[in-house]
Each structure stands twice: as structure tokens, then as C-alpha cells.
UniProtKB/TrEMBL annotation:
<dbReference type="GO" id="GO:0050661">
    <property type="term" value="F:NADP binding"/>
</dbReference>
<dbReference type="GO" id="GO:0005737">
    <property type="term" value="C:cytoplasm"/>
</dbReference>
<dbReference type="InterPro" id="IPR016162">
    <property type="entry name" value="Ald_DH_N"/>
</dbReference>
<keyword id="KW-0641">Proline biosynthesis</keyword>
<dbReference type="Pfam" id="PF00171">
    <property type="entry name" value="Aldedh"/>
</dbReference>
<feature type="domain" description="Aldehyde dehydrogenase">
    <location>
        <begin position="2"/>
        <end position="293"/>
    </location>
</feature>
<dbReference type="GO" id="GO:0004350">
    <property type="term" value="F:glutamate-5-semialdehyde dehydrogenase activity"/>
</dbReference>
<comment type="similarity">
    <text>Belongs to the gamma-glutamyl phosphate reductase family.</text>
</comment>
<dbReference type="InterPro" id="IPR020593">
    <property type="entry name" value="G-glutamylP_reductase_CS"/>
</dbReference>
<keyword id="KW-0560">Oxidoreductase</keyword>
<dbReference type="InterPro" id="IPR016161">
    <property type="entry name" value="Ald_DH/histidinol_DH"/>
</dbReference>
<protein>
    <recommendedName>
        <fullName>Gamma-glutamyl phosphate reductase</fullName>
        <ecNumber>1.2.1.41</ecNumber>
    </recommendedName>
</protein>
<keyword id="KW-0963">Cytoplasm</keyword>
<comment type="function">
    <text>Catalyzes the NADPH-dependent reduction of L-glutamate 5-phosphate into L-glutamate 5-semialdehyde and phosphate. The product spontaneously undergoes cyclization to form 1-pyrroline-5-carboxylate.</text>
</comment>
<dbReference type="InterPro" id="IPR000965">
    <property type="entry name" value="GPR_dom"/>
</dbReference>
<keyword id="KW-0028">Amino-acid biosynthesis</keyword>
<dbReference type="InterPro" id="IPR016163">
    <property type="entry name" value="Ald_DH_C"/>
</dbReference>
Amino acid sequence: MTNTETERKVETAQTAALQLAQLSDEQRRTALLDVADALEARTDEILAANERDVEAAEELLADGEYTRAFVDRLTLSVSKVESIAEMVRSVADQDDPLEKTLEARRLDEGLELYKVAVPIGVVGAVFESRPDALVQIAALGLKSGNAVILKGGSEALHSNRTLFEIITDATADVPDGWAQQIEAREDVDTLLEMDNAVDLLMPRGSSSFVSYIQDNTSIPVLGHTEGVCHVYVDADANLEMAEDIAYDAKVQYPAVCNAIETLLVHEDVAETFLPAIVDRYEAADVEIRGDEATREFVDVEAATDADWDTEYGDLIVSARVVDSLGTACNHITTHGSKHTESIVTEDADRAETFMRSLDSASVFHNASTRFADGYRYGLGAEVGISTGKIHARGPVGLEGLTTYKYHLEGDGHLVATYAGEDAKPYRHEEFDGEWMPGRLAGE
């Protein structure tokens, strides 16, 4: 595919976005349910394509280029396809994020201003490894009325092609071109230059990958460069609970960005807690790297300064013993990536202090960091997780794919009426009203 072809695809998506925004929620919902049914009906095709990708990945795993966690993220199964289809249905059943009146203000009698939720427009998503990401992003884009440009990683080439074909086949009644797929690195470079047509970029992948996207475009980027997440076991923690949370947060799915990379333990419970969690970690083949204080209680590898800033994405965890809640918060502020942090404690005041002190997108009390996920938050799914502060934070679902515009309903009103010596004053009254197309002010 040439760069000219990429430009054509983006421009087609731009045209489709205007038409897509005019579809009713029922039309968008029906299309998504059709996608879910098609995914299940064509499961064999999906798995056959995925098998080709996994076979190639296994060869690179044997050569040391991929990790087992990376290959696991790539691999699909019958149950995984079923869960992807259920995710699409979950998105379909979410409340319509569009045409909601966010604010209503009466400027004067018969002159009413409405702030209304609308789609962003064209969203470019560049992602690695997990083929289910393509379906998540497409489903959220369709439900929120956004056209999508999808670029998956080469490691999932055959899986992504098949999934994209199924999605577009199942949405024949949706404006043509609402979803576009690009594949080559040069196509991404072209995409990054099209700030006149692409409204938002959502990169998902390694920190170096996301940084590349951020550094090479003037298009707004919503994403995170790293997922350096923490669990802090406080002096007043229920240690059995803390052990379960620390284990789940690392082992349940180590390759994702909301898995912890560092475990912080208060010195008052370190002697009891560390041997127990290390035993469980080692039974799950987790490599533990500890600071000097940690290694006084358990026999583990020595942590280096670099470990505190590393997103392993694998069965590796660093551990540090701290002398206070303040020290734990300072460590997270210094080394964290503003993604997700959790405190395990029975002391509500310390939990509140922890959650107020940190500037991460998600902060938890007595819960695994693995809950930082769009589906688990009830968003249906997510296009990614944002650690920035502009527009959206944390798991980005339907609401994060909308913006707003102002609709003003008048009846021949003129600015001149409100200017000069005899100017009429504005009322500027908030009121409980909803904007509807074709509405006449005051009705």
C-alpha cells in the first residue's frame, strides 16, 4: 500500500465520520450485534489465521526475540473469541454517548444554549500484539460514532486482517469507509502527518512505541508511555488479603499494563509478609528483585536503580521495604508512570491519604491493580488507558471518544440588543433542558 492509498483511506474515513455521526443509537447498536454474531459464526477462520501468527511468534520465542507472555497475549482460542463477541455486545448495550445535553443555559427568553456531546471524528489507533484490541477499538468507535483507522502489529497480521474483514462484512449498512486498516510502518508515518483529517491518536504498546507516536505528530495523542504500577502493603494491612492482591496484580496476567511491577512493603510487616509472598511468587515462576532491606528477609536477586523505573510486562517484580506511607508515596511519585496504584490497609485514614497524595489515573484501596480496565469499569471496553490529564484519564471508553459542541436556539435574537447604552442584560440561567434537533426555542 502506498502513502497515497493511506491518504485516500484516511480521507474516506473523514467523509464517513460525518455520516456515521448521524446514525441513530439503534442503528449503531444493531450493527455491533451483527459484528458479535459474525465473530462467533466465523470462529474457525479467526483461529486459523491466528494460528499462523502464533506459529511465527513461537519461532521468534525460541530465538529469544519474544517472551512467553508476549506470545500468550497474541494467542486466541474458542473461549477468547466468545469473550471478544461478548465484549462487543457489552459495548452495544451501553447507553448512547451522543446527543446528550451536558449543560443547558438560558441567555435570555427564547435564547437557549445547549452543550451537546458529539463524536470526536476520526480516531487513529496504532497498537501491538493483542488482536482483540482491533475489535475493541472498532466496537467503541462505531458505538460512539467515530470513524477509525486501525494499525495492528505485524506479529498479528493474519489475525487482524481476518477480524477486520469480519467487522466490515458485518457492518455493510454502516457508512462505507467508517473503518480502515493500514499495515506498513510508512503508512503510520503518513497517518501521523495528516493532522487535517485525523482528530485523535490512540497508541497502545511499549513505552518506546508510544513515545515514537507522541514525538512524530501534531495530532493530539491519548495514551501512556509505561505501566509502572505499584501495590503498597501498609503496616495495618490484612496480610492474607495483601498476599492475594499482590499475587493477582502480578501473576493473573503479567503482560498487561495494569499488572504491578513494584511491590512496596512497610517495615513493620516485612518479616511476616515477604517470605509468604515470595513463596507464592516463586511457585508461579516469578523472578523477584529486592532492595537491601528486602534481602534481609528473603533470598532474592538484588534490585538495581533501573528496576524501579522498568515496565517488565513479564513474570518479574521488584520489591522494596519502606519505613512509612510517605516514603511509599514518594517512591511511587518518583518512579511511577501515573497509571494505577493500590494500597492494602485496614486504616481508612491512611488509605485516604494514599489516594489523595498520588497523581495516578487510578488509585485503589484493597484491590488488585488489574481492575484498571474499561470492561471491568463498566465502560464496555476501552480503546486504551490514558495517563495524561487532558480530555480523558484511565481506561478510555465511550465517553473518552466524545467531545462537545454548542447549539444555540434563538428566535431572531441580535447581539445589538445586548450592547450599547440601552443594552438588555443577559439572564444566564441554568435550566433543566434537553436539546433536540428541530427544537424551537421556548417550546
